[in-house]
């Protein structure tokens, strides 16, 4: 008489077969990409993405355009932007200094949402199209009024090769080298 296989052993056998099948599938994917690598990984900083104009990177203040309305600081969802008071010469009465308010930014808190840039009524704030700036310590991430008016030095990937990330119909995301002006 043939031995009877219980339900529990059948279940165990099925689980084992499923496990082996899944592992073989994963191994097959690994072999496929080993033989024909279509990687999207950027070898940073030897390669770096050339970001488009309009990318929401670091934010810069054009102080002469600022009317001190504080809309940028009020709308900031992460309390990264705040207004500070500054005494400066009044163009109409140079002998009398006047008090003005300008925004400053704390990049420890900024989430690059761009609300402050969008809400500014005079376009006194703008984005630059990069965001990989290296800081030596957290204090450097707080920009005072002077720092906020200068575009940050693009310190990383200077020696690297710029690439653009594109969508290919068959391959999906691919990287394409671009010239310095591209
Ligand atoms: S980009 Fe967003 S988070 Fe950053 S300072 Fe502007 S409003 Fe605040
Ligand atoms: S929203 Fe624009 S104009 Fe108003 S305080 Fe901010 S930077 Fe200045």
Describe the structure in your own words.
With 182 residues, the protein is α+β, with helices and mostly antiparallel strands. It contains 4 helices and 8 strands, in the order αββαββαββαββ. The protein binds iron/sulfur cluster (SF4) (2 copies). The site of one iron/sulfur cluster (SF4) has 15 residues, from α3.
Lay out the secondary structure.
Layout: H1 7-35, E1 47-49, E2 59-61, H2 71-75, E3 81-89, E4 97-106, H3 115-119, E5 125-127, E6 142-143, H4 145-148, E7 161-168, E8 172-177
Parallel strand pairs: 1-7
Antiparallel strand pairs: 2-5, 3-4, 4-6, 7-8
Residues 66-72, 103, 119-120, 122, 124-125 line the site of one iron/sulfur cluster.
Rg: 28 Å
**What fraction strand?**
15-25%
Percent helix, as a range, is: 10-25%
What molecules are bound to this protein?
A: iron/sulfur cluster
Number of helices: 4
